UniProtKB/TrEMBL annotation:
<dbReference type="GO" id="GO:0003677">
    <property type="term" value="F:DNA binding"/>
</dbReference>
<keyword id="KW-0238">DNA-binding</keyword>
<dbReference type="InterPro" id="IPR001647">
    <property type="entry name" value="HTH_TetR"/>
</dbReference>
<protein>
    <recommendedName>
        <fullName>HTH tetR-type domain-containing protein</fullName>
    </recommendedName>
</protein>
<feature type="domain" description="HTH tetR-type">
    <location>
        <begin position="10"/>
        <end position="70"/>
    </location>
</feature>
<feature type="DNA-binding region" description="H-T-H motif">
    <location>
        <begin position="33"/>
        <end position="52"/>
    </location>
</feature>
<dbReference type="InterPro" id="IPR009057">
    <property type="entry name" value="Homeodomain-like_sf"/>
</dbReference>
<dbReference type="InterPro" id="IPR050624">
    <property type="entry name" value="HTH-type_Tx_Regulator"/>
</dbReference>
Amino acid sequence: MSGAMDKRRRRTRLRLQAALRSLLAEKPLAEISVDALTRAAGVTRPTFYSNYTDLTAMLDEYLTGLLAEMARRHSAIIDDPERGTPEMLARIVEQALIDIDRSDPRLHTLLNGVTHLTPETRFAEMVEQMMDQCDPIDRPFASEAARRLHPHFFTGAFVGMLRFWVTRPDGIDAKMMAAAFTQFGTSGRFGATDPLPGMPSS
């Protein structure tokens, strides 16, 4: 019975998430009520509240899934012989950009800010775990203070880049964006090479 209930619960959550995505494509989160969501999903209010406490909890679930998939991809990539190189970072970022659905209004809502939900903090926690995975066990990459700062630095850069990426900038694909992120992140603004060769200068 529990297996059947789990499947039913998952189907219900998928319907609710699909309804939220559809409604967010039409109006901001603040204008969406639980009643409107349940009507769109074809479920009752008690069914909604048996799955989520509120709409923010639905976005939290979406964010959790997004971060889990990015972490899974990262774990697969770091097994590559290029582990610890800028090429590896570029591959991780490129894959993340490819995997993310830029048209998903739930992502746009998160990036625009949601009360009581801080994506940057969650991203930073994931980045810190990624850095721990990449560091040699017997040789920490940096001091404790630097290790606390690094995740927040790269998270700020990544989320800022993601906000730009969802605008679908002309002439910049995922590979180019990842190369630029890696160049800026490892060599600074005045790196040795142009991260976006061929792009017209202003």
